[in-house]
Amino acid sequence: MATLAELTVQILTQRMAKKEMSLDEIQQEMVTISTMIKAIDEGTLQEPAAESAAEVTKPQKINLKQYFKKDEVVCAICNKGFKTLKRHLTTAHAMKPGQYRKQFGIPATLSLAAKSYVESRRQMALEKGLGEGLAKAREAKAATKAAEVPAKRTKAAVPAVKKKAAVPVASK
Questions:
Q1: What are the beta bridge partners of residue 84?
Q2: Over the Cα atoms of the chain, what is R_g?
Q3: Is the dihedral of CA 4, 7, 9, 12 positive or negative?
Q4: Mean pLDDT score of the chain, rounded to an integer?
Q5: What sections of the chain are H helices per DSSP?
Q6: Residue 115, Cβ density class (10 Å: 0-12 exposed, 13-18 middle, ≥19 buried)
Q7: Is 101 in a helix, a strand, or coil?
Q8: Stated pTM of the model
Q9: At residue 162, does pLDDT exceed 70?
Q10: Residue 97: what pLDDT?
Q11: Are 73 and 85 in contact, with CB atoms under 8 Å apart?
């Protein structure tokens, strides 16, 4: 069985491979990991439910210019660069793009893809004429939809003032 120090080093090296850390962060992480391993071994580990819930609700602010560059988009979790983040988020972090946006305060209008990649895809679509085909399909759909809609029935106008029926007069 591995010792506490060996387990701590193994976990710490895996974390350092995914994220650059300063010396202070490494030391703090080492203490945290060894404390958790001791607690697991003794059976006294308690779930940090309150702490993790607070982290999820409070979005972390990131510098958008630092993470959204022309040729790459950097993942704020592992600091690796990609052309698009969607696939990376789902495979590496089991996270949906909406959750990622909420966690880091990224506006919905900002694409999770590199600007050069988006522009190259746009140019390719224009060269292939994909926009024209889409416009024709929309026109055809609108024409069939207009032909299927039946004419609306109108109700008879209701008089604004109702007349009271004549009251029969009782004879004496």
A1: 113
A2: 32
A3: negative
A4: 80
A5: 4-18, 23-42, 49-57, 64-67, 86-92, 97-104, 115-128, 130-148
A6: middle
A7: helix
A8: 0.46
A9: no
A10: 93
A11: yes
